[in-house]
């Protein structure tokens, strides 16, 4: 019997802001995760491919300003937005990725088009934008990505000349008067200044195929031109029916140095260990050796799902076809 189709998603990992926990914000995150999982579940229930399910889930996460991808992406040191995304099909090992784009509304859809329509795997900057336009994607004005909450967060981080990390969350604790209710506020469950808000999805479909997708605005106040793990096949995204599908979130530089997503698949293939053991080793043993913080989501062709992280929290969830979605934020 075929294992039940399943989808898992993440909306970034990070430090929990315990002192300022806001039940309403928490509720908004759970509701958003549930909606995305339900949409992915629907794709899988109607016989859709794992590739279709992860594309749709990540597209919805990109459109949601609560997460750092697409609308609501973080700011670079130049006050701009540079987006990265990647996608991989475990049944063919085909992949597509774009990075450093500034006018692509849904980077994951363009990455998917790279997978389907190009002989290349990855496009960057102006070339990626040109590819998107040639493929019929309407460019958006860069103001589309702007949210007041991310802008405030950037001004604070920039004032301290940091690249998002190790910022004192308490300085970001004042409520934003008149803030847009749809946007993240300083009361969100995970400290906005100590969070990696990348989004991702992995899925197994009814046909036994897996796929993975990852999309991000990167890290707040990053230097222009900086590229993280999210668009790199093997670092932030990997899928192979023979082993598993993986999407990561965290300190991208460390995930790149550990080739984190591929390492999960490689450990399963070469060490013969389970999905859970391989993913746990990468997140709990290997990444911490170089101070790598964050987590990943992974699924294998048997329908096993694992969502390990070494931070205090990770926005995450999974849904098997025919079963209510499960969402979680904390440990
Ligand atoms: N991994 C992403 C990057 O380094 C950040 C994140 O996960 O939010 O660009």
Automatic annotation (TrEMBL):
The lineage of its organism: Bacteria, Pseudomonadati, Pseudomonadota, Betaproteobacteria, Burkholderiales. It comes from Caballeronia sordidicola. Transmembrane segments: none annotated. This is Isoaspartyl peptidase. The active site is at 198 (nucleophile). Keywords: Aminopeptidase, Autocatalytic cleavage, Hydrolase, Protease. GO terms for biological process: proteolysis. The record marks 197-198 as: Cleavage. Residues 169-189 are annotated as: Disordered. SUPFAM superfamilies: N-terminal nucleophile aminohydrolases (Ntn hydrolases). One of its GO terms (molecular function) is hydrolase activity, acting on carbon-nitrogen (but not peptide) bonds, in linear amides. Pfam families: Asparaginase_2 (PF01112).
């Amino acid at each position: 019997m075929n294992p039940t189709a399943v989808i898992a998603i993440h909306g970034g990992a990070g430090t929990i802001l315990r002192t300022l926990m806001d039940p309403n914000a928490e509720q908004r995150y759970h509701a958003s995760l549930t909606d995305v999982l339900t949409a992915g579940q629907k794709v899988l229930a109607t016989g859709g491919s794992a590739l279709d399910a992860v594309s749709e889930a990540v597209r919805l996460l990109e459109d949601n300003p609560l997460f750092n991808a697409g609308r609501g992406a973080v700011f670079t040191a130049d006050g701009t937005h540079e987006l990265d995304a990647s996608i991989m099909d475990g049944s063919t090992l085909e992949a597509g990725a774009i990075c450093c784009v500034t006018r692509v509304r849904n980077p994951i859809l363009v990455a998917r088009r790279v997978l389907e329509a190009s002989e290349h795997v990855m496009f960057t900057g102006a070339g990626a934008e040109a590819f998107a336009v040639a493929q019929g994607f309407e460019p958006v004005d860069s103001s589309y990505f702007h949210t007041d909450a991310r802008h405030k967060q950037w001004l604070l981080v920039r004032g301290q000349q940091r690249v998002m990390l190790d910022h004192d969350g308490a300085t970001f604790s004042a409520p934003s008067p008149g803030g847009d209710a749809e946007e993240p506020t300083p009361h969100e469950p995970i400290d906005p200044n100590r969070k990696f808000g990348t989004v991702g999805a992995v899925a197994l479909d009814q046909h036994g195929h897996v796929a993975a997708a990852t999309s991000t605005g990167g890290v707040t106040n990053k230097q222009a031109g900086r590229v993280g793990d999210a668009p790199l096949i093997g670092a932030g995204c990997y899928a192979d029916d023979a082993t598993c599908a993986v999407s990561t979130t965290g300190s991208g530089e460390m995930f790149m140095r550990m080739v984190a997503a591929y390492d999960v698949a490689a450990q399963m293939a070469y060490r013969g260990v389970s999905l859970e053991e391989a993913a746990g080793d990468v997140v709990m043993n290997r990444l911490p050796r170089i101070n790598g913080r964050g987590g990943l989501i992974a699924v294998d062709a048997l329908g096993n799902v694992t969502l390990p992280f070494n931070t205090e929290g990770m926005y995450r969830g999974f849904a098997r076809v025919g079963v209510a979605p499960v969402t979680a934020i904390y440990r």
